[in-house]
Design a protein that fits this description.
The protein has about 90 residues and is an alpha+beta fold. The protein contains 3 helices and 5 strands. A 5-stranded mixed beta sheet has the order 4-3-2-1-5. The radius of gyration is 13 Å and the shape is flat. The mean pLDDT is about 95.
């Protein structure tokens, strides 16, 4: 099963994250299928960049996002587009 989740990058005490599509059994910082964007929680406000087309593609084929990635997708407006597509 494919999950949309965060992969930690950055140095000690300065985390930044990639939003990736990865197999659910792969380790957090292990193998991934595709990079969808990045997230930096330390900037004010937090920086979130997600490729909308790639994210929608993975959601359409059944990838399940984690809770954190779902909230990031909502902030970017991607989740609302996916929900409206599902209703039609």
């Amino acid at each position: 099963m494919v999950r949309l989740r965060l992969q930690r990058t950055g140095r000690r005490n300065r985390p930044s994250y990639r939003v990736v599509a990865a197999e659910s059994r792969a380790p957090r910082d292990g193998a991934f299928i595709e990079i969808l964007g990045h997230y930096d929680p330390l900037t004010d406000p937090a920086t979130v960049v997600i490729d909308e087309d790639k994210a929608l593609k993975w959601l359409r084929v059944g990838a399940k996002p984690t809770a954190t990635v779902t909230s990031l997708l909502r902030k970017q407006g991607v989740w609302d587009k996916f929900e409206s597509e599902k209703k039609q």
